[in-house]
Amino acid sequence: MEGEGNETLHPSCSVSEPPYSEELLRSLDLPGKFLFAILTLMTLIANLVFIEEALYIYRKIPSSKRSIIIWVNAAAPVIATTSCIGMWIPRSTMFTDFTAAVFFAIVIHKFLLLMIKECGGQKLLLRRFENDRFKISTGPCCCCCLCLPRVRITRRTLFWLKLGTFQFAFLRPVLMFLSIVLWTNGIYTPYNLSPKGAAIWISCFVGVITIIALWPVGIMFQQVRTLLICKKIIPKFALYQFILILNHLQAAIINILAMQKVIPCAPPLSSSARGAYTTQQLLIMEMFLITLISRVVYRRRCDDLEPPECMAEEVGDNKQTPRIIMNGAIREDGLPRV
Questions:
Q1: Nearest Cα to Cα of residue 82 among 314, 330, 276
Q2: Worst-scoring range by mean pLDDT, 34-38, 97-101, 299-303?
Q3: I want to staple 77 with a disulfide (CB 3.0 to 4.6 A). Which of 17, 50, 301, 318 is the partner?
Q4: Where are the transmembrane segments (predicted)?
Q5: Residue 168 near residue 207 (C-beta atoms within 8 A)
Q6: Which helix (DSSP H) or strand (DSSP E) does residue 134 occupy?
Q7: Which of 54, 113, 46 lies closest to 77 in space, CA to CA?
């Protein structure tokens, strides 16, 4: 029975390279073509929604935060676009994945800067938290190390936090370039995770610098989430986390299952190619939904562009209002009761 199973094995199942786009399109049946059309339409709508949102941000948001918010909003449409290109042209998957990873590495750094900008900038943040300390026992590095001391919030501390995210935005393109150079020489293969290959070592290094980059974002969020609740920082951080999990963790799990042949091959797609194909389709749908939700979260009315930084300011304004007690009733306008 084993020999008979090997004889009926399709040749594409033993090939790690994805098929050409013409071969993939010819193998699609009517439901497959309909799915391709729907996912492509989702990608187009996501990009149109982002363009409309970018125009709104450009007109309504102050210039100091304009580019940062556009960068953060662009994460989901860019990932959807690269996934759609990889779905149509399977052999471009390595390059589209690299492009999405590099862009999101920059978005991680931009999101840290966004939280600082929403606090009024670095100077105002330092003035507001001059007597506070950062809680560094947070994820993903040190969430279990509760004994770690708190660190004073100073200009030097903010520099190290920015450096933690900037190193990822800088090193990720460098590693992408190195991977492409090694791939041209046959040394780097994305689906070859043996110790003799370069992919496993580059992936481990990318994992380390990713964790280092996520740590400062978590530290800053823990510090400012109460202050920036009026600016919807919690749903913004949740969307950022969803993109991170779906684009990295979900893709990694599916790729591992594909390499272990848990996801069977479906000619002309091998197991690894089908895993990437499945990841791309899921990402298009997920990033489409995140793009629509981001439009609601980041869209603010003209009179809400600069909401109060804290409730203490509103309380202070209320205390300045004259209050006169007449016949046991409190009057705020100072006029006699008729």
A1: 276
A2: 299-303
A3: 50
A4: 34-56, 68-89, 95-116, 159-183, 198-217, 237-258, 278-298
A5: no
A6: strand 133-134
A7: 46
